[in-house]
Amino acid sequence: MKAFRLALLTILLFGFTTAIQSQEKSLFSVGNSTVSVGIGLPSTFTNILIPPITTSYEYCIIDFGRKIGSIGVGGLAGYAFHRYTYGDAIYTDHYILIGPKGTYHFNGIPNVPELEVYGSTVLGVLIDASRNKSKNVSGIVYKDNVVNFGYDVKLGAKYWFKPTMSAYAEFGYGLSFFEVGLSFLL
Question: Among 3.30.70.1890, 2.40.160.20, 3.40.50.460, 1.10.3720.10, what is the CATH number of 25-185?
Answer without folding.
Answer: 2.40.160.20
